[in-house]
Amino acid sequence: MSRFTTLSLTVTALALLLAAPALQAQQQQAPKYQRVQAKPKKLYCWNKGNERICSDALPQDAVNSAREEFGVKSGLRRGSVERTLTEEERATEAVAAAQRQLDQAAEETRKRTEQAMLSTYEDENDLRRVFTERTSILDNNVQTASYNVASLRDALVTLLSGAGDRELAGQPVTDKQTQDIRLRHTELVAQQRLQASFIAQREALDTEIEETLQRYRVLKGTAVANDPRG
Fold first, then answer.
1. Is 24 within a domain?
2. Residue pLDDT, tens place only, 93-116
3. Distance (Å, rounded) from C-alpha 150 to C-alpha 155?
4. d(CA 95, CA 133)
5. What is d(CA 160, CA 190) in angstroms, rounded to the nearest whole number?
6. Is 19 helix (H, G, I), strand (E, B) or coil?
7. Residue 93: which residues within 8 A CB-CB, separation 6 or more?
8. Are the beta carbons of 62 and 48 closer than 8 angstroms?
9. Are residues 77 and 129 in the same domain?
10. Which residues form a coiled coil (predicted)?
């Protein structure tokens, strides 16, 4: 090893020895940093059965519960969270929301209809003519159903009478007679239901007409004048 190389190593070693105390002093003077746990900012309070629980941490089994939130330092109420709805409750709420939307749409339609009614019809007779076609159709349906009911009843009575005559004569009722009786009875019951439905629709239309006229009178300001009790 050359003299120059030996001299360089000696200088380097000397520099390290001189720097060691300084580094040690710096390490002793440097502040020691420790991880400080963040203090909670909220206090949660919820009910568990009949027990009121408050904690600065929200456990997993209370995540879906209704709760109130308070500031830890101030103690003031900062807000609240509603209980998470069940699947059934969410479905019920969806139906209710849809119904509210329908009700709102119906109310808006009613208002537009009332405005159109005032601007379109000059008097009650003019308004009544709006219902003429519906009244005529329903009246015709009721009459047709009534005719069919009467005809089927007569046919059924005739079939039953024929079957009764055979039994009185000591003869068995044929399969065809039995089948025809059942068929006519089924048709009669169906037609009676249809007749009842048409009659109910006609009565409902009468109610609708009267309510529409009453509303028209109120809008026109003539309700009191046209009230027979006035």
1. no
2. 787 888 888 788 877 777 777 777
3. 9
4. 35
5. 19
6. helix
7. 85
8. yes
9. no
10. 81-115
Rounded CA-CA distance 184/197 in Å is 20
Integer Cα distance of 151 and 157 in angstroms: 10
Q: How many angstroms separate the CA atoms of 224 and 77, rounded? A: 56
Residue 4 in tokens: 């120059």
Alpha-carbon distance values, 13 to 6, 23, 59, 75 (Å): 11, 15, 60, 63
Given this model, what pLDDT does residue 187 score? 92
Residue 174 forms part of a structural domain: yes
- Give CA separation, 131 vs 117, 125, 140, 207, in Å: 13, 10, 14, 12
Q: Is residue 158 part of a domain?
A: yes
- List strand residue ranges (DSSP E) for the chain, in order: 42-48, 51-55, 67-71, 77-81
Count CA within 13 A, CB hemisphere, residue 146. Answer: 8
Q: Read off the tokens for 91.
A: 């479905």
Give the tens place of pLDDT for each residue, 184-228: 999 999 999 999 999 999 999 999 889 988 988 888 887 654 444
Backbone angles phi, psi at 36, to 5 degrees: -100, 125
| Ordered strands of the 67-71 beta sheet | 51-55, 42-48, 67-71, 77-81
Q: In the chain, pLDDT over 90 holds for what percent of residues?
A: 31
Q: Looking at the structure, do residues 132 and 189 belong to the same domain, yes or no?
A: yes
**Phi, psi (degrees; rounded to nearest 5) at 109:** -65, -40
- Considering the domain architecture, whether residues 75 and 144 belong to the same structural domain is answered as no
Cα maximum dimension of the chain: 153
The domain in which residue 69 lies consists of: 42-81
